[in-house]
Amino acid sequence: MKNELDQPVTIHWHGYPVPVDMDGVPGVTQNAVKPGESFQYSFTATVPGTYWYHSHYKSAEQVDLGLYGALIVEGDRQTELDRDYTFILDEMNSKGKAGSKGMMGSSNDDLFTVNGKSGDLISAYEIQTGENVRLRFINAGYITHYMNLGSIEYRVVAVDGQAVMDPQIIQNKLLPVGPGERYDVEFTAPDSSFFIREMLNTPAADGLIIPLINRTSKKTLDETEYDGIFTLTGSGIATEYASLASNKYDQEYKMVLSHGMKGMGMIYTINGRTYPDIDPLDVKRGDIIKVTLESKDMMFDHPMHLHGHFFQVLSKDGSPVEDGAIFKDTLVVKPGEKYELAFIANNPGEWMFHCHDLNHASSGMMTSVLYDGYAIPSHIDQSQPSE
Ligand code: C2O
Ligand code: CU
Fold this sequence. Notes:
Distance between the termini: 18 Å
CATH class of the largest domain: Mainly Beta
Bound molecules: CU-O-CU linkage, copper (II) ion
Number of strands: 27
CATH topology of the largest domain: Immunoglobulin-like
Shape: globular
Low-confidence stretches: none
Number of helices: 2
Order of helices and strands: EEHEEEEEEEEEEEEEEEEEEEEEEEEHE
Mean pLDDT: 94
Strand content: 35-45%
């Protein structure tokens, strides 16, 4: 990566379990790459799935202004796909500004985009009757996007890169894609064209309509009313790893998420504190760790993301996720919700664990998972901002 910007930058490989020195966190895993300098990121792409990369330097601004892209690691099933389209969803500002951190955490973004485009500028994506089509949704923005896939029957085949075992057919349910999350869906192309629409009740949503065009057909699918929203927990979905659920963990941590005021601005807190004034989650290699994420924030969603690991969602609001183990790297915690997670400490280093509303991360909602015996290498200047 060569930095041709007039400000420093780093690149983080969101969701992909890279070795720690490739994780792209300034002041923790590397020094920020100054204007005109270069940095070589290298890792082996052995874990198939849909990931993405983005700036981790002043990311609330740099990611908001578009410094991101998709990282697709193809798996064995790739040859069975006739079409494979990636849709990166985002919110942008028509005047080219980064979203502001207003008093209420509000943003001045007025456009919803896919692959950087909105409205008539969105390309048409071709399909032909009977084709096996995969769509990879990635949310690079700061709000959940509710996608309506017309009335097609689809299967959720991967979540946050992790393949779903035995994916079931879903129809007329909105697919919610939270900040930082990825959902891969597959379907058999119908004998018609159809549209994918963002259904949030705001004018910006009208600009996020993706045409899937079947040129051999003159028909367009009827758009039936959707009945409800796909929910991950309770959907029976399970990804491929064995469950970590147990009654004994090597370490247990609790992270209470909230917000408050400091001077004239908002702060977003973990256990009442802001980064870097938050104790890291200390782990030892090989440990199985349980983390309780509890929102005491009645206003904002907090899409929490752990670097370098996949975690299992053990329970939601006290009910165990029993159908199977769901492994992810980003989880949207809505106001008042409580989740229990577990992960195996299998990738030594120091790994950020933060909210993926990057305005929240830069205003405090960030901590790290720190392995016993690991220290930040001495050539790294720890005074740099880490997000
Ligand atoms: Cu995509 Cu530290 O995040
Ligand atoms: Cu947040």
